[in-house]
Amino acid sequence: MNTHCRQLGRRPILKSLAVAAATGLPLARPAIAAPRTLRIGLIMPMTGSLALFTEHVPFVLDQVRRTYGGMLPINGANHPFQILAKDSQSNPNRASEVALDLILKDKVDIMCAFATPETVNPVSDQCEANGVPCLTNDAPLEPYFFGRHGDPKKGFDWTYNFFFSAGQVVGTFISVWDRLSVTKHLGVLWANDTDGNAFAQVMPPIFQKAGFTVVDPGRFDLPASNFNAQIAAFKSANADAALAVLPSPDFTTFWNEAARQAYRPRVVTPGKVGEFPPGVYPYGDRAINFAVEVWWSRFHPYSSTMTGQSCAELADEYEKASNRQASMALGFRHSLLEVCFDVLKRTQDLDKPESIRDALRTTDCKSIVGPINFSKGPFPNTAETLVVAGQWRKGKKWPLELVIVDNKDVPEVPLGGHPEPMTYGS
Amino acid sequence: MAAAIADQAIQGVLLGGLYCMFALGLSLTVGVLRFVNIAHGDLIVLLSFLTLAVCTGLGIHPLLSLVLVVPLSCALFYALQRLLLQRVTGQNPLLVLLITFGIAIIIQNGLLQGFGADTRKLPGGALETATWQVAPGLYVGILPLLTLLTAIVMVWLLDLLLYRSRLGARIRAASDDVAAANLIGLPTPRIFAAAMAVVGATAAVAACFMGLQMNFDPASGPSRLLIAFEAVVLGGLGSLWGTLAGGIVLGVAQSIGGEFDAAWQAIAGHAAFLLIFLLRPQGFFPKY
User: Signal peptide position in this chain (chain A) (predicted)?
Assistant: First the structure.
């Protein structure tokens, strides 16, 4: 097995933040009155069950430091800036608390947050209530917008989020399943958590419209001790496609038990596991042809407005610096700060939150994860980023590498292969 | 439907083997040493991490690493009893409870510091997915089967040790009446420590099988403790075979509950526990 030690813990993150903050001090004062230091709040789960989401943050902050040296050129003047990072501890209440802290005590000019609705929604709600511009990503649009009780007619005043939407992901999955001509029976494992409950509401109607019968044995609490009952239900319904949205320990329990019960679906999608290299490595060859939605990859034909790098260059630099395989999350970590700086650079009057908000609202940025434009989203205040489908195959540089197998919605992303069914060692 | 429920019942019995393993050490602690070890689940998780370190460090199979981990675990539990818990045995039972509670917190945070929050699993190789087709449509996993058989052998060995061996006689003597045991010259502190070392051996085996069948992280100890505790109480305090029965009842209740609705899986185990507890508060085979 590939045991995977977390190399980037809380301390290295804090250290690199200290460096970033130090370089943000106004060392060289221009002759004219020095502009005040801009403050950017950044809230993320550095500790707790979502800690894997922050793997790329120290690297991206280092990129920011090297690119700007702590000075942001806005309207011809160099503005010093500071990034104030806070830990949500993977806890929505804590996220809300630190957001309020950053707003009231540190008086941040703009707030950024990422990593699941559990982090993004409470932070956005605080910013909306206190009139602080807020930019977030890595939270699917439906749980973001409807989870915050958004009204599609009104939207929000201060808060903006870019990521994929559940509806779009379902479309991509269906395309892959149809190409593999599975029986139209789909087994789903949705747990009793925010994502599970949201998906159980949003997804089944779309699947049914595409002719699929959804075999849903019901919500279950995590951690689950076994999946015998669900597997028996899938087997008796002849569910050829399995879609699980489970944290990795629970997916392991499911996947081992499926092997022992000889449940062999042609397509398996392990949501929350298959997106991350450390998530699939432990399964070795049994992860080959796991199918997942791909929100970003080294093959995407976009480039960064911050560093000018292409996706491949960004991935290569990360792999060289960390000796770990780059993953989808890297693009979104980079894009969050990239779009944030894009907003600040376009701001007319940095002393007015409304002015920053207006710049945020009119964002039209060709970012590393594709075009971000908040006026085109499926819901107000959101921008839908693009999703293709990928499968894990044996790699050359890494044990397993993600290959793009379907680009129905985004033809500009090159295909690396075609969909293949699971092999089960045969 | 009947076939499906029978299938689930068989899977539940196999799962019960694992639950019995969690509970055996606790059963001994409660029945013989007469205290409740709140840190039992966390000690098992600690041993899982130790097993992980040994088998990745030396590149050997987790089951083989037991050769090393079991003696280490015995020494750890011996020292724990001799140097720490012995100081408060016989006094206010709350003190032991508080101390083991403290140990649980120290272990959880120590593991978090040392290994991070990632969830881990022991590399079982081909054993993880090996299966045996008993009848058409009825599969029994080799690993769960091995777990159940090991649990039965462990109960049998512990029973022999307690009721057929010299050490067992001493342990029971010290357990029944410390003052009288002291009076006839038995070194009770050492006997209790030896009993705790036996608990350590069961915990190490449980840790290995848990790591092979489920994943673990630094925070997964308390949920193991809950299952172990229910199995011990269901079986009757002090009865080792009762603990096996208790574990199996929990496993079967969970599996059959899950057959009706996945949401009922966890609750069915707890409901079965409460129901049996109401009808038979002393458990199946109470010793005391």
Answer: 1-33
